[in-house]
Every structure is written in C-alpha cells, then in structure tokens.
Amino acid sequence: MAELDNIFKNLPRDLSDEVFQSIATGSGVKIERIISKGHASPAGYWYDQAQHEWVMLLAGEAMLAFESGREQHLKAGDYLNIPAHSKHRVLWTSAECETIWLAVHYD
C-alpha cells in the first residue's frame, strides 16, 4: 500500500553537509530529495553523470554553472533538464534558508 509523505517534512537539523535522500528508484530511474544550505560543489569539481537529470528547486535559491560557461540562477519553482554528461557544478545555494531540490535521474 502506498504511504503518504511530504517533501518538506522531516528536514534534517544538521546541514553541515548537503543531504541526498532517495525517494524512489526503478528501472533506469532514481528520484531524490537534496537539501542544501550554503553549500557549493568543491572547487574544480564537475558533476559528469551517466544519466540525464531533471531537477526542480522547490525552495530556496541556487546558482549552477556549466562547463560551457553558462550559469543558471534558480529560484523556487524553476526546473531544468541536464543531459547526461553535461558537466555542471553548484556555485552556491542560499545560506539564509534550506534549498530543497527534487532530482530525477533517468536513462
């Protein structure tokens, strides 16, 4: 039986590290909640993922950078699709409040 939950419920108190929580997985798909607060990718680090990633910012604010030089500012409600192997990194997330991401990784 399906159980009701809420994406904004049970936010961790300790956000000294960014939190990645798997919500659901299936054949070629992973859905996760990511919680950031003042986090950024380590200097020189680029995500280079084998799967596509559709990501939506549910709360907070963030800035992504792409290897191509493009930067993308995201606010609550914004979403984008990042094709597989599109190198990207998080430049910053809001230090004032939690930034809550919904990420769908898929083939």
Protein described:
The protein is mainly β and 107 residues long. The protein has one domain: Jelly Rolls. The protein has strands at 19-26, 29-36, 52-59, 61-66, 71-75, 79-82, 88-93, 99-106. The strands form two sheets. It has a five-stranded antiparallel beta sheet with strand order 1-2-8-3-6, with no helix packed on it. A hairpin with a 4-residue loop joins β4 (61-66) and β5 (71-75). The chain is globular. The model has no long low-confidence stretch (mean pLDDT 97).
Short description:
The chain is mainly β.
Are there runs of 5+ residues with pLDDT below 50, and where? none
Per DSSP, what share of the residues sits in E-state strands of 2 or more residues?
over 45%
Largest sheet: 5 strands, antiparallel
Secondary structural class: mainly beta
CATH superfamily: Jelly Rolls
**Radius of gyration computed on alpha carbons:** 14 Å
* Tally of strands: 8
Query: Briefly, what CATH class?
Result: Mainly Beta
Number of helices: 0
State the end-to-end CA separation. 27 Å
CATH third-tier fold name: Jelly Rolls
Helical fraction equals under 10%
Number of domains: 1
Cα shape: globular
The helix-strand sequence is EEEEEEEE
Using the 3D structure, state the CATH architecture: Sandwich
Strand order of the largest sheet: 1-2-8-3-6
Mean pLDDT: 97
